[in-house]
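Re: folding output
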Amino acid sequence: MGAVSGIVAAVAGLASAQLAAAAGRPEASPVTAVGGAVVDLTPVAVREWAIRLFGTSDKLVLGLGILAVLAAVAVGAGLLAVRHLPAAIAVTGGFGLVGALAALSRPDASWRDALPSLVGALVSAGVLYLLVTAGRRTRPAGAVQGGAGAMDRRGFGRLVVAVLAASAGVGLGARRLGAHGSADATASRARFVLPRPTVPAPPVPAGADLRVPGLGPFLTPDQDFYRVDTALVVPRVDADTWRLRIHGEGVARPLTLDLRRLLARPVVEHDITLTCVSNEVGGPYAGNARWLGVRLGDLLREAGVRPPSEGGPADQLVARSVDGMTIGTPVEAVMDGRAALLAVGMNGRPLPFAHGFPVRMVVPGLYGYVSACKWLTELRLTTFAAYDAYWVRRSWAQQAVVKTQSRIDTPRPYADLAPGRVPVAGVAWAQHRGIERVQVRVDGGAWQEARLGAADGVDTWRQWVWPWEATPGPHTLEVRATDGTGAVQTGVRTGTVPDGATGWHTVNVRVRALGSGLSAGADRE
């Protein structure tokens, strides 16, 4: 009964904490706050390992891990409570204090963010006291003797069920309150109509999409676009109340804009490939989309900003998200004429919440951690010497230009292939430099020229394909690209830290013997 009491008390505490968080800030809920703190404190190598292992499910795994730890502590507290109730109450309070401190450690936190964890700890301690005290008075079902106020085990079970039912009601109330809190944001996105671009993007060139089986589309659908960020709860921002502040060093005319005023400026459309710095060689964290927005460089000039090349005092633009994330971008890069955007649209629709609605940054040629701030709310001009943004404080480079990369999408690693002609195909990217050439080789032999899909400017990836006459046996396929400056992709393999991975993508396959219907595994056996 001690273990049951501990678990039920934890459930009641979590439900109460969720209700308190829903009434304030969802990011202040204990699991979310502790998860964010864990992400902050996790060494870079461990975080990169988690991304490689779990992909975009890393946040789900983290949340489940926190709940598992909480369950273990709850069982321990319940067992302790049977022998020493005050000590168990202290353990419960201590766990609540951990949640409160984690919430206070989050960017832009206030003292109110500590309340959900403290409320949860108080409720959990109260329920634990109630159940353990009742459990001590239980007698076996059907027993005649019993002290004053004694209940049988069925009575204890009914009490447990009652507490769980009340907790479920509180949890449902928290969910509905949270849904109500985000309803305005959801409604604002539903009402939002993308403006017509003043400068529309030209149609994707014929032949840009090679349509090879196993090769993804040239433009990545919203639902398939990668998402790598630290937000355990996706912010849902109301477009009607959204504001953007532009200020800092060298800003002659500070601006505060709502969405209507922002979009009163010329709106442009541009195809841009984004890449995450956590993308391993051959990894999936790259995607290509058609973005709609306002040119960031023009907006900064309107505020009186001059880039360093023109004598401006600020060389870093620090973008801040509504959840406190900070991302530092070179001022020169966003003002050198490239299509650096404050984007509101993605592939012809308003930005999805998961990709930054209502406004995010998109800067071609730079990795996302130094350019692609989502849920944007502030732009501050400063210097790299004066301020380190979030990821820079965690061992990543201050500035990071996207490296030339290429990837084999088909055939897949360890594929079992029939002999004969096999299309080897994939994508290559070197944003803001473009791709001029892709070469493939087999088993370390001579490099062979792949056929490139049509180029859609220098800011997007290019698809490529090479017809391979596959012969029986195991084989190793490699790919490399040459960018628009003539630089050949390096074959030196490095990890993602501090400024992106390098190396040639390698895929190992096996080609069956002529006339063989056995799998590669059966051949080996």
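--- second protein (sequence, then structure) ---
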Amino acid sequence: MNTLVIVLIAAVCLVAAYALYGRWLAKTWGIDPKAVTPAHRFQDGKDYVPTDGWTVFSHQFSSIAGAGPVTGAIQAAAFGWLPVLLWILIGGIFFGAVTDFGALYASVKNDGKSMGLLIEKYIGKFGRKVFLLFCWLFTLLVIAAFADMVAGTFTAYEVVDGVSQLSASAATNGAAGCISLFFILFAMVLGLVQKKFHLTGWREVVAGLVCTVAALAMGMLLPITLGKDAWLYITFIYIFFAATLPMWLLKQPRDFMTTFMFIGMIAGAVLGLLVAHPTMNLKVYTGFNNESLGTLFPILFVTVACGAVSGFHSLVSSGTSSKTIDNERDMPKVGYGAMVLESLLAVLALCVAGAAAAADGTPAAGTPFQIFSTGVAGFFEMFGVPVYVAQCFMTMCVSALALTSLDAVARIGRMSFQELFSVDDMKNAEGWRKLLCNTYFATIVTLVCGFVLAKIGYSNIWPLFGSANQLLSALVLATLCVFMKVTGRNNKMLFPPLIIMLCVTFTALVQRLVALVQAVAAGSATFWVEGLQLIIAVLLIALGLTIVVSSVKAYVSSRKNSEKEGAKA
């Protein structure tokens, strides 16, 4: 099948979903353009910062569009491209975008509270503690994995026969690393300029484009030759500042600039498919069972992840984006719109991988990132872009997919740690509690743990990431069901994704649990791999069941519209 036809079908479905279903959700739940948002009510110049809607959209999209939509779609294509495409579209429209929008909406309507605090309000204090601990541990895994990925992308060396030597892509990788450093510098310049002159509209776009092009040009001229360890240290230094500096100074302008790169990457992929319109060489369907991945259900649904639905997204929606919404009318495009755009990115990744595959359906060699990067770089070269420029741009883009999620998750990890130990009256709290809730101390603890995990090998427990991520989405949906009920809003659209995601995650975890027990029984397991996974799998199942039971009890005991009735009383 022609890849262009696939992209056009996907684009029409996603745009129609935003225009119809997204607006219907906004109308059903209720959007009040005159309401004072948390960004204005609690403005502190750091986390709560009233921000232009498109800038918040850029932050949301850049933060959630991590490695998932590219790697997940390409890996899951082992089952065939049609099941992946269907799940991306159905999941993105009815699962992911609804969850992201719902989390953002609930947070904005509750003073910008994070999902952990929302769970405390609607489910209970015990549920909050368990959820926050899970979120914090989850962020450590993401920090370790994505930091390792970024450092590996920028390194100029490779190990051949046990000897470290300059790789063939040293100049390209070094240039991408230097571009990232200039991105940080110019992002702070852009943040200061926006703060000083209050740039909006086309002026903000022009300033962002100038800073983006300048960072790209200077980085390509000055490649930096460093090893993986050096880049790992640099990455953690950066995310420390990203997690502690005011949103307007670094995080928001960097995300705004990165969005231009992502738009360029997506446009290059679309135009390449439009002009070349290569054939989708991957097989339509390969069968229910796959030797390397397992069974289509539930593995397909936890592998695609971010391209269809992701629990991590709700942490961004309620953790950072909700605190910067200037007007409630911006919520649909930030919550729903950013997710459908990510689904389109996942479809493009699938099509690029399909075009790169051999005529007999054999997938292209390399990691999903390499396949996607090489494929889109080839499209740019087809339009006359120099090879070096195309390679540097795409290397920077794929690393930025991980880096923008990395700095967001570091900030969320810091907030989760603080909320885990915070109490209502922090002014009169114990000294040790004030220390643990200190912004810098919480950030250092979070990043040190993430760094240690990156060094000792996060890969030992990475196989459980997909299930943990999707379990997180199910728990968020359960909380949203209670929120919608007690505030008198329609929650019927939440139950199908909630039930399906609970079935997916628990089936995946039980399958993994059985496999691990069999490995232990056969004597082929080691503690630091199978043993550790076994412990975490049991904890995830216990966590999920605990919060689900608490959610059911809270839902049954609550009365519809009770929150509004209580407020009137």
